[in-house]
Structure formats: structure tokens, C-alpha cells
Amino acid sequence: QLQFVESGGGLVQPGGSLRLSCAASAASGFMVDYYAIAWFRQAPGKEREGVSCIGVDGGYTNYADSVKGRFTISRDNAKGTVYLQMNSLKPEDTANYYCALHRTPYYTCSRFRAFDYDYWGQGTQVTVSS
After folding, report:
1. What confidence score (pLDDT) does residue 28 get?
2. Distance (Å, rounded) from C-alpha 81 to C-alpha 17?
3. Do 52 and 34 touch, CB atoms closer than 8 A?
4. CA–CA dist 48, 27 (Å, integer)
5. Terminal C-alpha separation, the chain
6. pLDDT per position as a tens digit, 104-127
7. Sign (positive/negative) of CA torsion 82, 89, 69, 66?
């Protein structure tokens, strides 16, 4: 069974930065290396939205328009961890951030559809406020 644990959230002022981590724990030896992993976020009263996705070796990445130029996704397969560097944070970035694994091996991150992802973590809360 695969589990993701997100961390790195917190309270930050507008314009600040945070680095989120998504660590995979695969007791069964499940290899996340062959799968795209994405970050999603959900604010109270809003639908879950895709933030960023990274392909198996980092060659493919995708970002929501709202975060392009401010967020950077990366992965370290040796550690089984995906990162989301968030800079120039805005109050509208406030949400619970989740990571999940795309169901299809070698997916190239062409779209964000929560329906296509499994093994959702519990999330980490990001609050941007002065």
C-alpha cells in the first residue's frame, strides 16, 4: 500500500515563500518512480484544483495558470519525494495542499483531473495572511 505524507505548510505573509514536501511511503515496494505526481489544493467552499504536476523523471511539468512563474515543482526519486517551492505567495493561495499519484504510468501531465489520481495524502495547510 502506498501512502503520501505532505508537510511544509504554515502561516506566511503575502509575498513570502514556503516549500512543501510530499513523501511516499510504500511498504509493498511500490515504485513511484514510474508515475507522475501532482499537487492539488482545496480552499473552504471551493472545488479541489490542480496546482502542478511532474512526470516520472521531471522532464514533464505542468502548472495552473494562477501559479505559473511563482511555483516550481521538483522530485527526488531516490528519496521518493516531490517538492513544491512556492514564492510570491498571495492570500488566494490559502488552501489545504494535497499530493497524489496519477493512475497511468509515464503520464506526461497534460491535464489536471483529480479523478485520474489515487493515494491522496491528508494534506498540509497553507495560509497566506498579514
Report:
1. 56
2. 19
3. no
4. 28
5. 40
6. 999 999 888 999 999 999 999 999
7. positive
C-alpha cell at 38: 501532482
Mean confidence (pLDDT) of the chain: 93
Task: Please report, for residues 35, 38, 95, 123, the alpha-carbon distance to residue 108 in angstroms, rounded to integers and kept in the order given.
Answer: 9, 11, 25, 23
Output the nine-digit C-alpha cell for 129.
495572511
23 DSSP β-pair partners: 5, 81
User: What is the C-alpha separation between 85 and 119, in angstroms, rounded?
Assistant: 22
Q: Which cell numbers in the block locate residue 53? A: 504536476
CA 58 from chain centre, in angstroms, equals 13
Query: Amino acid identity of 81?
Result: T
How many Å apart are CA 81 and CA 65, to the nearest integer? 24
Write out the three cell numbers for 79. 528519496
What does DSSP say about strands 10-12 and 124-128: parallel, antiparallel, or unpaired? parallel
Task: Give the separation between CA 104 and CA 66, rounded to whole angstroms.
Answer: 26
Average pLDDT (72-91) is 95
Give the distance from CA 92 to its chain's centroid.
17
